[in-house]
Amino acid sequence: MDGAPHQNLRMFEALCGKRAMSSVIFITTMWDRMNTSEKMAAAELREKALEDRYCKGMIERGALMRRFTNSRDNALEILTPLLRTDHHGPVVLQEEVVDQGRSLSKTRAGKELCSKLQKIHLQQKETVQALQKLAKESKNTRDKAEAETELKRIQVEFDATLEQMSALKLGVWQKISLFISKKAGAAITPVRFL
Asked: Which residues constitute the domain of residue 35?
C-alpha cells in the first residue's frame, strides 16, 4: 500500500487521534473466497503486512483488525465490541474544532491535508512549466497541440487544488508562500485570497 491509500490511512489516523483508536476496527474482506491453501497463505501474508507496516501503531493504541467472511454472524461478531463499549473517546478533529475552537487548517488533519495539497500544487506547477516549455519549443504542430491540450487540463486541476487550499482558509504565511511560488512561474493563474 503506497501512494494515495497510505496517505488516506495517515489522514484517517490524524482525524481520529490516539484516544479514539479503541473505536476503530480494520476489516479485511474476501476471506470467504480463500478456497485453496495457497490463496489463504497469500491472504494471511498480506494481512500480516497490513497489520505490521500500516496499522501497527493504531493497533498498539487499541484498534482491532478483523476478518470478514461475508456472513451475518461474522458481521455481528466484528461489531459487537463497539456496541458493548460504554465510552468511545472523541476523535481529535472533533476536539480541535469544537472544544479548542481551531479552524480546520489549524487542526492536525487540516495540516496533513494542507501538506498533501501543497505537494500536489508543486507537482502540478512543475508539470505546467514543462508543458509550457514543450508547447513553446516544439516544432511539430501535433506535439504542440497535444502539449497545449494537456496544459489546459492540468490548469483546471491546478485551479481546483488552489480552490481546495483556499477552502481550508490557509494562514497568511501559507498564502504568501503560495503567492511567491506562483510568481516564479508567472504564466500560471494568480492565487485567490479569501
From this structure: 18-90
